């Protein structure tokens, strides 16, 4: 029997929304009722007054296996996650080929278990080839371990096909993850419509495209009664529709990206492609509205939407460059910007980073309660550092925070009570 006793900790509990000194006991990888004194033979870990919280569950991570291992492998993603306090990765199915068959899902599940020091679970494609027409074998994919179903950024314009897939998913209790964008209107858009985009000559998309896509998805969710999650809500215009769906009792949740919470459209500056995202960065007014919705609980989840891209894919004219940024190692320090600005408390942040994604996906992690897996992160929310993208453990280095002054350093990470990372600094 292996017993760990974490003492002198600042416990961040997202279930009780408490932030208080305390201790934590772990027996054979499972959290037990806290006691002030360690049991005989326990390994005592002095947290030095730093924050001990549930490990982050990062929902929507792109990993390059299969097909693009040069961008990110399960091993490199797992090492980056551990260094960032992420103990569970929820991986996307937008691979090459897509994760749209039980055989492909079983392959990536096995590869992840063999290669990564953290937990990796997968979403599967909703339609074959993510083409938006013919649904995948949802039942078999559920049996193979799929947590949810999504075509990620390929939004189907065929509402009839989507409604069929949702109806079938509803019969199986499966969760559908949608990317709220009107596909025709948003096609080719590299920035949000604004004076800034016009001045820079960047092809732009109206923020109304997000609301239109969300309204369509919510109408289908109401019609089919499916469990639905909107992966990225980034505009103020989308919030009333989301609030109405919640008030009507629909089984609907929503997430947003850490980049849309901490950056805005002006950060693109002189066509800096590391700031090109999907959806594009929004106005400062939108950013503030999404932060308020997160604080109020209307938006449930914060994720990094880790999207590795090689140098050749980013060193192109802005409208031609790949969208997205890596985020497994920058998610926590970027989230600390919201804490230090007074927008959210640490328990509120970990509610969105750990508890809510675990609850929505039916996972036991994301908690400090007795019986939960001991997936933990020890961090210093005030430790300052200068972000250097070449020190990131991800194979790809496309972060918009390169050279930025940040606060919040991960000191150690445990998965099932086993230490998978400890800072050397």
UniProtKB/TrEMBL annotation:
Its EC number is 3.5.2.3. GO terms for molecular function: dihydroorotase activity. Keywords: Hydrolase, Pyrimidine biosynthesis. Pfam families: DHOase. It comes from the Bacteria. Residues 49-236 form the Dihydroorotase catalytic domain. The keyword DNA repair does not apply. CDD domains: DHOase_IIa. The keyword Electron transport does not apply. NCBIfam families: pyrC_multi. This is Dihydroorotase. It comes from Pseudogemmobacter faecipullorum. The gene is pyrC.
